[in-house]
Amino acid sequence: MAIEKCINEFDVDEVIFEGGSTGRELFVVLEGKVDIAKINGASKTVIVTLGKGEFFGEMAVIDGSARSATAIAAAPNTRVMRINHARFVYLVSQQPAFALMIMDALSKRLRASNAVTFRTANP
């Protein structure tokens, strides 16, 4: 597949994917910014804003579960590259540094989530 077919461009507030949807793709921010947010009716809580070189959607590409949050373009001309499950498995098997980068990011995100949960549970 040509690399151009894996790149999508979004404008501000365009949804890249919705929380609860299924998907077997990981996304890498090439340009712009992406908000990862929880949507509850008209309420939007931004969990994190990601920029160039950062990635999102890794949980769904790994385990095939529903998306845990919504990804929304947060800057004009936000460009992302989609990496499907087959390409992800190939990269992990052929590039140990890529696998370590994913594990490092997952670990940091889990620690941050745990810290927020702990603070909320123990004010």
UniProtKB/TrEMBL annotation:
Limits of the Cyclic nucleotide-binding domain: 10-109
A Pfam family this chain is assigned to: cNMP_binding
PROSITE patterns on file: CNMP_BINDING_2, CNMP_BINDING_3
GO cellular component, one term: cytosol
GO MF term (any one): DNA-binding transcription factor activity
The name this protein goes by in its record: Crp/Fnr family transcriptional regulator
